[in-house]
Amino acid sequence: MNVFSAMEVLSSGLEAQRTRLNVVSSNLANANTTKTEAGGPYKRKDAVFASQPVQGRFNELMNDSLSKNVQMVKTVDIVEDNAPPRFVFDPEHPDANADGYVAYPDISMVEEMVNMMMASRAYEASTTAMQTMTTAARSALKI
Are 80 and 42 in contact (CB under 8 A)? Predict the structure, then answer.
C-alpha cells in the first residue's frame, strides 16, 4: 500500500466518523422533540456505512497487490429508527393526547453518549494515524 492510499483510507474514516458525530448530536439535541414538520415525535437516526475499494489514477499506476485489497468507508445513508415513541403522562403538555400522554422520541441518552464516545475515539485514532503517515512520508523525503 502506498502513502496516498493510506491517506485516502484515513480521510474516508475521518469523514465517516464526522457524519456519525453529527447524527448523534442531532439525536441528543432532539431527545425531547415531540412534534416535527412530518408530524409526531422526532425519530432517532443512524448512519449506515459501507466499504468500497480505493480508486484513483495513482492506484492504477502503482498496481500493487496491497492496494487491491484496501477498502475505504463511505456513508451510504442516514436511516430513521422504527422504534415506537415512549409515552409519558403529562396532561398539561400542549402535545398531550386525549389520555394525557405525550409521545417522546425513543432515544437513550446513555446509548447516544456511548456512540459519541466511540465515534470520537475512532476519529482520534484516524488523526493519529494520519499524523504518523505524514511524519513517515516526510522522513522518507529526507533520505
Answer: no
49-75 residue pLDDT tens: 999 887 765 545 455 555 567 788 999
**Beta-strand relationship, 101-104 and 86-89:** antiparallel
Residue 141 lies in a domain: no
Q: Is the pLDDT of residue 43 over 70?
A: yes
Which of 46-83 are b and which e, b meaning 16 or more Cβ less than 10 Å from the residue's Cβ?
ebebeeeebeeeebeeeeeeebeebebbebeeeeeeee
Q: What is the pTM of this model?
A: 0.81
Domain contains 139: no
Question: Quick one: pLDDT at residue 56?
Answer: 61
Provide the domain count of the chain.
1
Distance of CA 11 to the CA centre of its chain: 13
| 75: three-class secondary structure by DSSP | strand
Q: Which domain holds residue 115?
A: 3-131
Burial class (CB in 10 A: 0-12, 13-18, 19+), 105: buried
User: How far apart, in whole angstroms, are the C-alpha atoms of residue 10 and residue 4?
Assistant: 10
